[in-house]
Amino acid sequence: MIGQSGEFYSTHIANGVFNALLCFTAIILNSITIHAVRRTPSLAKPLKTLLLSLAVSDLCVGLIVHPLHVTLSLLFLKDHEQKNWTLHEQNLTIALAGIGNFLFYASFFSLLALTVDRFLAILFHLRYQDIVTHNRAIVVVISLFVISAFLSSVGFSFTPKQITTTLKIQVISEILCITIIAILYCKIYLTVRRHRNEIRALQVLPLAGENGKKTANAARRFKSVGSTFFVYLVFLACYLPNICINIVAMIHRPSVSISYLVPYFWTLVLLNSSLNPIIYCWKMRNVRHVVKNMVQNVFVCRRT
Question: What is the pLDDT of residues 18-37, one digit of tens each?
Answer without folding.
Answer: 888 999 999 999 999 998 88
